[in-house]
Amino acid sequence: MTYLKRLLDTRLQHALERGKSVLLLGARQTGKSTLLKNQCDPDHYYDLSSPQLRREFEQDPDRLADEIAALTLSPERKSPPLIIIDEVQKVPEIIDVAQSLIDDQKARFVLTSSSARKLKKRENGDINLLPGRVIKLQLDVLMLSELPSPHPKLEDILLYGQLPHICLTGNEFDKDEDLKSYVNIYLEEEIRQEALVRNLGAFSRFLELAAIEAGNPINMTKLAQEISEYFQIVEDGLIVDKILPIMDGTSRRRLTKAPKYLFFDLGVRRICAKEGTRLSAASLGSQFEQFIGMELNRDIRLKNDSYKLSYWRDHNGPEVDYVIEMHHEFLPIEVKWTDKPSTKDCRHLMKFMDEYPCKDIAYVVCRVPRKRMLNDRVMALPWQELPSILDNAGE
Fold first, then answer.
1. Average pLDDT over residues 217-224
2. Among 68-77, 135-144, 164-173, whose mean pLDDT is lowest?
3. CA quadruple 337, 338, 339, 342: dihedral positive or negative?
4. Of 30, 153, 188, 197, which cross-links 203 as Cys (Cβ 3.0–4.6 Å)?
């Protein structure tokens, strides 16, 4: 299959050149293994999705240290060997062995995982790897600037998403079949086989409702404990990103405290929600808003993970779809499914900018052919130019 160059390539190579080990997170089929096969030349490659290899390491995780010790006996070796362990969450015990080898500078690792759940320490929820020793990276679905040429139409992105193999599939029927297979494999292998829930039917119904409600605030305090745990499972499994609201303000506004959840891929979301391919204008507008939110979050992860994506909502009406929280400033962004934005679309942005320290320019991301000013503080931006928001944010 054609290799699509990823923006994460540069960060991966830089980390390895510095002698660092890497934890590469990413949902299933985002291209982690393909990236590593094209960018790395390891001394050993272990794929723990193989049942036999998984059983061997479960029985004897120290075997890893023994095999690496044999590698280091070569007198020609000048640096620690590079070891790739794919799907490391399948055998969590092996992480302690790898961590010890990293500490002793006996090996460098690239560890991949499609779930952070089994990598976390129970006491604080942090990933069980030493800070500073391991660089954590995340490979998402294809970003706008990674999409193959000719670029798919916007409506196709909203319907079929941005998983690499889906983007390279030409037939729409095949795209749908592959997306259905993806969801079924996720339920069977990630949920049933890993015994993450007791009742797969209840979790499957939850997944449908979560997909339908994606992009809307979810009042977690009113949900049953089981549903809250389900949300944590899909967040740990990199299926959703949680977007928190801004809850502090200088006015007496009653701000919402409920998070939003965005699915990592809109094609997967649509299949989970059991929706067809004929979406109403209102549905397309909702998917467009989620698409922009996920693109912003991916861009932040890639370019500046000290930033944070949030949203702002007053219970009495005013709402800003997304706000990029920088170190001492905010950058508010509205998303509109229109090619004719007006000053009316700036109202909530202006309210927010009057109450918070903001960048000089806010944005209405929409379907205009060219960017233009809606007033002296708000720019209408074509969705195709979305990456420029973060590129210009530091200016």
1. 84
2. 68-77
3. negative
4. 197
Buried b (16+ CB within 10 A) or exposed e, 351-367: bbbeebebbebbbbbbb
pTM to 2 decimal places: 0.92
Domain boundary among 138, 173, 193: 138
Residues 197, 314 within the same domain:
yes
Max CA separation in the chain (angstroms): 72
- The three state secondary structure string of 283-339 is HHHHHHHHHHHHHHHHHHHHHCCCCEEEEEEECCCCEEEEEEECCCCEEEEEECCCC
Mean pLDDT across 121-144: 75
Residue 129 has pLDDT above 90, yes or no: no
Strand 44-47 versus strand 82-86 pairing type: parallel
Q: Are both 85 and 61 inside the same structural domain?
A: yes
Could you tell me if 123 and 188 lie in one domain? Answer: no
Q: CA-to-CA distance for 93 and 95, rounded, in angstroms?
A: 5
**16 band by pLDDT with thresholds 50, 70 and 90:** very high
Domain boundary, last residue among 121, 138, 155: 138
128 and 151 co-located in one domain: no
Same domain as 69, residue 17 = yes
Instruction: Tell me the pLDDT of the chain averaged across its residues.
Output: 91
Could you tell me the CATH number of the domain that includes residue 39? 3.40.50.300
pLDDT at 125: 54
CA distance 26 to 139: 5
| HSE-CB for 157 with a 13 A CA cutoff | 25
Asked if the structure places residue 202 within a domain, the reply is yes
- Over residues 343-395, the pLDDT tens digits come to 999 999 999 999 999 999 999 999 999 999 999 999 999 999 999 998 877 65
Range of the domain at 367: 145-393
Q: Are residues 230 and 168 in the same domain?
A: yes
Q: Quick one: 383 and 360 in the same domain?
A: yes
